[in-house]
Amino acid sequence: MEAWFSVPETIIEAGVSEGSTSSDNSKYIASLPDVTFVMKNGTEYPHKGRVSSVTGVVDAATGSLSCKATFANPEGLLYSGIQGTVVLPLSEKNVMVIPQTAVVRLQDKALVYKVKADSTATAVTVTINDAGNGKDFIVTEGLTVGDRIVTVGANNLQEGQKVLFPTAPKKEK
Q: What is the arithmetic mean of pLDDT over 143-160?
């Protein structure tokens, strides 16, 4: 059984930055991990699949490429037209991940409010890549490990504004 799905072009860009070319497409596909199919009701299909092709054209509207995965279907559980989610487990090492809610878009810039020692916010420009999970960005420039950033309400902040941190509720005795 075949399943068509989309992946962000950043996944392919990662391969390009490692030196892969379009002629290495079959090697790249072979290096991808097995995929999982999750049906609409949340049930995980019991057989893993393999990515069998990646189109060579990026959809300009979505910034994604179409891929095809092939799944064994010995019990006949999959039908043509069934919908679900194809999960392609990819990981990156030694990266900084921040929630998308922390990023403020200003024209062509991505900003994050860093909290200084005096608890005031200062905007810093960051370079980000989509983590592909709909919730996070991978920061490639602009922050260092240990920086404290505003993750909730960043769109409502102004430069130099005091940042209040929630306090832990007191436990009743």
A: 92
pLDDT digits (tens, 9 = 90+) for 33-73: 899 999 899 889 999 999 998 887 888 888 888 889 999 99
Q: How far apart are CA 33 and CA 86, in angstroms?
A: 12
In the chain, the amino acid numbered 81 is G
Cα(15)–Cα(19) distance, rounded to whole angstroms?
Answer: 7
Please give the Cα distance from 89 to 91 (Å, whole number).
7
- Cβ neighbours, 10 Å, residue 107: 4
pTM: 0.56
Name 7's Cβ contacts closer than 8 Å, sequence gap at least 6. Answer: 54, 64, 65, 67, 88, 132
Count of other CB atoms within 10 angstroms of residue 8: 17
Judging by DSSP bridges, how do beta strands 36-39 and 84-87 pair with one another? antiparallel
Taking Cα atoms as reference points, which of 70, 60, 61, 86 lies closest to residue 5? Answer: 86
